[in-house]
């Protein structure tokens, strides 16, 4: 595949890890055999395998180090990854991770809480959306940000890790909290609401990640909205880093309904060694489908991969309006290949929609710019992005026109993003 063709195709869409393909695991798990497995996986599945350098895997201290040395950085600076097998399986199978249970946003020298998961150490400690983090273990957050040390301040993903934090609440109260890491379950459908807007019954779903428990959670949420007579939907994906392709197809089918059954949702495109894996994904007909004629999506720079896939796949069939900010931009997908105690997920395919489009390495641009309003709770009709979405449904117009060039309203730089399942969690 030529460099020009690679750029054109790869500028396509992305999604997330799927079950491992057939590949022989090492019989003995040493560093060298692990590195060799990653090398073989890359030469077989990697979308840019022809650009891999010829280096000796035995020279590297870990499979992670080997991948970093050989990845095709011109297009793949963070997409491909090697991660812990048990942690990855726990997340994608059960929507669980080890942590405190909250997500944050950092702008300039300020860190604020975006979301707190129910029944987590953070929730039990009293942390809330909009809180400003002032100190962590006695160290100033502003100084940690300025020195570039903020990334590791909350410690490793291990049970028992303890942190004390000083926060300032939205009301201006200063509080000191203690948290200890343990297994946290992320509610995939974190919030569902129904609003009446000028005679329209509008559903709202805050959807957090595309993992196995999402199937039942989405079915339950859409069934409730259907029972309520919802005719419009606001799908909030602002913190959704993606997940499984199958869940994206299911969500798209719940939105698109019976009229789209059997139509092409997206098509896999692999490298020239794996064209036999190319296939079309098609809309199904879930019982709780809403049969919508249009969709309004709240997005941000943290909306990635499967979140972007849903938007891109639906656009050939209905108007999809993006509220908020330009999405992350992840136009490639991976297969998760399990070996020893690791999983390697090399970029292996692109997913194009029914029009053959998936050109958003720079993200999907917001149609109606709106803030992520941390002074209001998620699901509050006064919250900036949701208020803009409801205004668009009522009037058919944005409060403010989109910028002439894509902008990221919520941060001075592209959002910091981990690799692997951690990039989907987007939380501490």
Give a description of the structure.
With 428 residues, this protein is of the alpha+beta class. 24% of the residues lie in helices and 25% in strands. The protein contains eleven helices and 21 strands. The protein has helices at 3-10, 31-45, 63-70, 85-94, 121-125, 141-146, 214-227, 245-256, 306-314, 384-395, 421-425; strands at 81-84, 96-99, 102-107, 110-116, 132-136, 139-140, 162-168, 174-180, 182-185, 189-197, 200-207, 232-236, 264-270, 280-282, 295-299, 320-324, 333-334, 337-339, 342-345, 347-352, 368-369. The strands form five sheets. Strands 3, 4, 5, 6, 7 and 8 form a six-stranded antiparallel beta sheet that branches. A six-stranded mixed beta sheet has the order 10-11-12-15-16-21, with helices on both faces. Strand 18 (337-339) and strand 19 form a beta hairpin. Helix 7 runs parallel beside helix 8. The longest helix is centred in the first third of the chain and has 15 residues, at 31-45. It is globular, with a radius of gyration of 21 Å. The model is unreliable at 1-20 and 408-417 (pLDDT under 50).
